[in-house]
Design brief:
Blueprint lengths: L1 H15 L1 E2 L22 E2 L6 E2 L4 E2 H15 L15 E6 L1 E2 L8 H19 L8 E6 L4 E6 L9 H15 L4 H18 L17 H34 L1
Parallel strand pairs: 1-6, 2-5, 5-7
Antiparallel strand pairs: 3-4, 7-8
InterPro entries: MOLO1
Protein name: Ground-like domain-containing protein
Organism: Syphacia muris
Length: 245
Amino acid sequence: MEHLILLLTLTGAVIGAEHNAFTVPDSLRNPTACNAKKRGFVCDPDGLLIDSSKKTDGSTLLNNAIENVRATDVCPCSDCLLFSGTAISVVVVQKIKMAFNETSREIILKAMKKFANDIRTRQARGLCDDDILIAVSIDDNEVQTSYGQRLNIRLNDTIVKEIANIAKQDFDKRNWTNGLLSMINNYGSILRNGTLAVRRSGTHWYSPLPLCVVICGAVLIAAIVAALVIGLISCRNGRRYSAVI
């Protein structure tokens, strides 16, 4: 009987750590269920951002970064409110709920995209479909970003993928807070001025372009400039020759 109770307890713990888009609490309505000290934009129902050894609260750090983006971003909507820049939300869960046999990366990726999109749609935190939601599933080793259609003029899937790849350096070290901070800061920077604030280690200003492309471009530009200079000199010499005659 004791073994049965233990088995049920362990099973319940595993099931409890699995989430779908409709079981994740709303951090603005129920911050306690999101392991947050106050209402905000970060939901961590499984307490994955709490580091008791370092006495740090990842949820608070992330929320402060999000508020900074909201305060400094330019609202793209026609009826903007004061300090109503783009709302970035974060959801971190142990695992998303899936069928027992749904284990392929393709299926998990598809499920995570739906998970992020459904939560963003349910929470509806944008003024004009201009919000962003970052979803992380630890056990599924997956991060997905869902963003509103109004942000298409400033965001695209290539930028989203690059931002996720930069954060992967921290995610691979299981440093979820730092990885999410880099994503939030990069989204904020892209929204403000179209550039990344944080880049991958070892990358350069021309990332993600290959070095050979940059070199070829530089050579082409130099050739064009040289041709223009030679052309101008030739024109001047031709005019002088005509004047002498």
